[in-house]
Design a protein that fits this description.
about 80 residues; mainly alpha; globular
Amino acid sequence: MNLAVQHGDTPGKSFVEYIDYLDTKGYVPPNGKAWVDRIRSKGNEATHEIRLIEESESFQVLKFTEMLLKFSYEFPSMLKEK
């Protein structure tokens, strides 16, 4: 949600609307919508269910989040450094 708002969307929308915004504005890498949906799904489970998440699931969400942040911030900032 924060990522979408930082990139120009308006506050107060649903998480799915933010995902769609990021995707349509090109902030989700090609073929990356499934990554973002996995982050959303696992976050939703963690919010609404009391269960321990498997280490492999945690690692996957962490890596998907890392790649999304790199794609949104790290790689574009490297172009500005030249």
